[in-house]
Design brief:
- This protein is an alpha+beta fold.
- The chain has a single domain, classed as Immunoglobulin-like (Sandwich).
- It is 25% helix and 36% strand.
- The protein is built from 3 helices and 9 strands.
- The longest helix is centred in the first third of the chain and has 24 residues.
- The radius of gyration is 21 Å and the shape is extended.
- The N and C termini lie far apart (76 Å).
């Protein structure tokens, strides 16, 4: 091989990498972080709960339209999981989980909203509101689902919120 062959290979690899990088940059992306949080109420009392942060690390503005809880409400059978996978061609692990919008539980999620590049949107859910929203859950873990303006859903990681002893 001569030097021109090596330069041709280098040029092809470099242009392919630049194409993939620019294709990734062209699509807006966001991430969801859940954390234990505190908030001071009007009366000066401190409330505890969960903080939901929707972060926009991309260079594009994103528009979110809904924020929901996603929690397990029953234990599905293996047949239900298989049927779900065959019928909808999606992962069978969402069977037995329920969506519950924050606005149904009188939690102000601030939606619809737009998030500028490099900014985030913060939502605080108090422990009382969280207990009411997840009263039907069969496990202490849940996820948060953020839906953008084009109805694309993005799921957070599982978050375990320990229930107080009864």
């Amino acid at each position: 091989m001569e030097l021109t062959d090596y330069l041709a290979i280098y040029g092809a690899l470099l242009s392919s990498l630049v194409f993939l990088w620019s294709a990734k940059q062209a699509r807006p992306s966001y991430r969801i972080r859940l954390t234990f949080a505190t908030d001071s109420a009007v009366g000066g009392k401190t409330r505890v709960g969960v903080g939901i942060s929707v972060q926009n690390p991309s260079s594009h503005q994103i528009h979110i339209s809904n924020v929901s809880f996603f929690y397990p409400f029953r234990r599905p059978t293996m047949w239900e999981r298989l049927t779900q996978m065959m019928r909808y061609k999606i992962s069978p692990f969402g069977v037995g989980w329920a969506h519950s919008s924050l606005s149904l539980h009188q939690v102000d999620d601030g939606c619809p909203t737009s998030i500028e590049p490099g900014k985030s949107h913060w939502i605080f859910v108090s422990e009382e509101d969280l207990q009411k929203a997840l009263s039907d859950a069969t496990a202490p873990h849940f996820r948060v689902v953020v839906q953008d303006a084009l109805w694309r859903n993005k799921y957070s990681e599982k978050f375990v919120y320990p229930r107080p002893p009864a």
